[in-house]
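Help needed: design a sequence for this.
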């Protein structure tokens, strides 16, 4: 990632300098969050910080309104939306079950066309997912903090009205930022409110779902199934009950891989560097107060 970000900085018209001389900081070491205080300690001219990912939880305790923050919000959304559609189809068509079978089995599955889809979150993933769902004629409800209409959705409601739509949801998609407010947003009550045939698809963060409650819902046949690109804990330990759950499809947080993401991130960062140098409005700002 470091070499890619260096290219992005120069492509955007910036110069690579030491932190002490920097006005902008492009963070290119996602695993090195602990070194952040040391890096910025002498950066007296620092104005702007660009983070590499859409999810900024590792940096949450470093957020400071002395600086303008931006992240990778929306950059990876096309890739994640594609995975989301794949997971929805896999669940509806029972592909996970057939792939595990060792003998011929009977017909299982549902039609996606006309299904009722509820999406938690009104960000980039949802923005790219809805056009992918459009050919199937699904009835889509977007649940977000504000009830401002979301383009492509049949209806948009606030989080406080979630239980109004859960009982008539065929697929519940989790695609929102992880904050203190959204941690555990899908737990025993939400899972119980879903129809027995409903599927849960989580492509956001594992912490959105109370894992123990999900395990129990699957064991008790009160949920059709779950497709998870993220888990809590993550990585999911060997021997965890979800691994052996026949109605659970798990991928190891690969809805967006480095191969997919870096080619998308490089021009995005270059554009933000160019905007910063020109004094223009930056892409994907982080709200320090909200934490995303």
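Sure. Designed sequence:
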């Amino acid at each position: 990632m470091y070499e890619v970000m260096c290219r992005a900085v120069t492509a955007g018209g910036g110069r690579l300098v030491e932190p002490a001389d920097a006005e902008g900081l492009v963070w290119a070491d996602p695993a090195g969050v602990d070194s952040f205080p040391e890096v910025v300690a002498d950066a007296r001219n620092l104005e702007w910080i660009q983070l590499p990912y859409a999810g900024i939880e590792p940096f949450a305790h470093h957020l400071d309104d002395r600086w303008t923050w931006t992240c990778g919000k929306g950059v990876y959304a096309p890739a994640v939306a594609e995975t989301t559609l794949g997971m929805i189809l896999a669940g509806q068509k029972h592909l996970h079950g057939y792939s595990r079978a060792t003998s011929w089995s009977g017909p299982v599955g549902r039609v996606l066309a006309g299904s009722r889809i509820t999406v938690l979150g009104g960000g980039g993933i949802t923005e790219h997912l809805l056009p992918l769902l459009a050919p199937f004629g699904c009835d889509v409800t977007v649940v977000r903090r504000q009830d401002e209409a979301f383009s492509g959705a049949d209806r948009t409601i606030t989080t406080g009205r979630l239980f109004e739509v859960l009982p008539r949801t065929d697929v519940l998609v989790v695609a929102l930022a992880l904050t203190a407010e959204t941690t555990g947003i899908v737990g025993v009550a939400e899972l119980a409110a879903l129809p027995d045939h409903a599927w849960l698809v989580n492509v956001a963060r594992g912490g959105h779902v109370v894992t123990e409650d999900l395990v129990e819902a699957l064991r008790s046949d009160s949920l059709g199934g779950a497709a998870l690109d993220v888990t809590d804990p993550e990585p999911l330990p060997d021997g965890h009950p979800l691994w052996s759950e026949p109605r659970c499809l798990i991928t190891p947080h690969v809805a967006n891989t480095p191969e997919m993401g870096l080619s998308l991130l490089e021009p995005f960062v270059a554009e933000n560097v160019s905007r910063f140098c020109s004094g223009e409005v930056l892409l994907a700002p982080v709200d320090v107060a909200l934490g995303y």
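The first strand starts at residue 24 and ends at 26.
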